[in-house]
Amino acid sequence: MEFGLSEDQRLMQDSVRRTLEKVSTLERVRVAADAKDAKANDIWHALVELGVPGLIIDEEFGGMGLKLLDAALIAEALGRFVSPVPFIASAVMAPVALAALGSAKQKEAWLPKLANGEAVAGVAISERSSGAREGSGVAASGGKLSGKALFVLDFAAADFYIVGDNAGGLHIVDAKAKGLTKVALTSIDLTRSLGELQFDKVDADALVSGDAKSGLQRVLDAGRVMLAADTLGAGWMMIDKAVEYAKERKQFGRVIGSFQAVKHMCAEMASEIEPGRSLVWYAAHAFDELPAEASLMAAHAKSYMGEVGRFVARTATEVHGGMGFTDLLGLHYWFKRIGLDRQLLGSPERVRADAAAMQDWGAR
Amino acid sequence: MDLSYSPQYEAFRAEVRAFLDKNKSKAPVSRGMMSAGSGTLAWQKLLIEHGYAARTIPKEYGGFGAEADILKSRIIAEEFTAAGAPMGLGGQGISMFVPTLLELGTEEQKKAFIEPTLMGELIWCQGYSEPGSGSDLASLQTKAHEDGDDFVINGQKIWTSTAKSAHMMFCLVRTEPDAPKHEGISYLIFSMDTPGIDVRPLTTMTGHAEFNEVFFTDVRVPKTQIVGGRGQGWFVANATLKHERGMLGDPNQAGARLREIVDLMHEETMDGERLIDNPLFRDRLVQLQSRVLAMQFHGLRLLTASSKGEDAGLARLIVKLQGCEINHQLAALAIDALGELGVLYGNSPHLRAHGSWQHRYMFDLGLIIGGGTAQIQKNIISERGLAMPREPKPAKA
Fold this sequence. Notes:
CATH topology of the largest domain in chain B: Butyryl-CoA Dehydrogenase, subunit A, domain 3
Number of helices of chain B: 12
Shape of chain B: globular
CATH architecture of the largest domain in chain B: Up-down Bundle
CATH class of the largest domain in chain B: Mainly Alpha
Strand content of chain B: 5-15%
CATH architecture of the largest domain in chain A: Up-down Bundle
Shape of chain A: globular
CATH superfamily of the largest domain in chain A: Butyryl-CoA Dehydrogenase, subunit A, domain 3
Oligomer: heterodimer
């Protein structure tokens, strides 16, 4: 019985962290955000060097063949450095979709390119994960898609999309396909790209080599765990920054970190978020090894980190006082990253309703 | 990450199961540790003989004498819980005093006290807190002055659970009034039958007297009944407090409580609708389930760290704060879901679960305050876990 990370996992996370510390600095993030560039090429290339885009892709397709727990460690590091790179959809959800439901030909066409960083994938399953808004929805008929999909992840840089239809099927759609209109959406978080896809009888390549329902669920579970891990990383960075600030900032002749009012805010943040690490690890491990629990644990991880994330984001900002509220400090990049994580792929209320249904608790 | 147990541990699990299959019928029905009847004592003896209680206490002191193995301890707990069989005796004597004595007691003390304590023949109570010394325990004022071969104790303790039924007390007293506050305390042990001890029940908000006040008037205790040296009591007590915090905030207790609420929400109805079908209560239930699960997995993580001899640092410091809070919130959910039924208490008609949800809601607030208040826990977390500065000491007048 060993509940924890292996030496290899610690080393891998450490090397990604050290790389991001150098390349994904606040100054760099700021430049990318100002340009609405959610695929900062220098950061992306540094991650390609480390094999991050192919982390969970099988070795036969040029990936590293690692597990979702490994991906969660990377997501945590990316959240910590609010890195403007496609990861959750492109390096995790799309590979999971292709692995679960792709034919040999579909895998061969896309997995090697995703693994070596040549291609980026977006994922459009918001209608299935969070519910349709603004009349969104995609109808599939005779190999063509019509309608619209909102809140598409890793949107702008994508070479192709994994698109969920109204019946729960998944499709590959080329980003340059005829009849496809792309509309960028601007969210609070400029480190990640979000968009809308409008389909006018667009050619789609259905992913049908497997059970569609469980395949879609798997994509969703993986995404939820990644968002939880991203918040874990971003949240801890906010706590670290708050503690550091409180140890330097003086008022009334003392560092504010010596006031219990301030210390207790920091202690509360740390004690709320740290059990979330254990939950995220377990949820990722369940995805890899305990399929019967995977969906429920992904929902719990997403809900828990969504709630804790909001608490940490506001509290850490408050510890910084007026400075936390300014653009100068850049703390808001983390605040916004956490804010986006919370809403995507099912907000806390939504994932808790899912979690209840998975346990047959009550009528829907 | 590997949540399976190796064959060695699976074999041990099979052994525990076989023991329970064979012996479960001998287990006492009541789990009360204070009302240690003969059935309870016989069960305790049987558990010690097989290594399912007092497992790591050396044989010479009446224990089983096994190597510490945290995974085996967990397997025992899991299997006993699954079988619904009572675990070995707990209480402040076994959980706090015995480990302290093993660490810091004299050979004579170990020989005299550990075995009867383990066997449930000696019940202990803890004399730490005083009316004027709660969070600032080291400021305690109960005094013991030297007189011949004895210490003579005068003063008052409070929050002494089990003082009515206890045979013995381990107690902090000030023996060196002129020394700095942490260095003037000694750790004494004595019989509760000693003349001059007056125990008065302390009724709490629950309506029950779960605690007592203990008054000392010229209580004579032989000087040999000290653990650690004179003036060393604070350091001896800290060894004990460490064991107490480990007892509070157990995530498996929260898991059991959550399951009770799930059942309650399936059974109870409001306007004919089951509570589990009510989206508001259901949402709160799942939200708390996330927190309970997080703490259970967190417990596994700490277990792994302990088994490797690693210091889990901040991850360990948060357990009491989080665990007690979650338990309290679970009781609050049960009360809210029951609506007006949730306020019934005592022996009222329509009472649910013997009024235990309100009792737990109130008693758990006591646990949030006791054993180091939530605010003291936050000081510890921020100072030791996050390396934040201590509150500056006020300038001496």
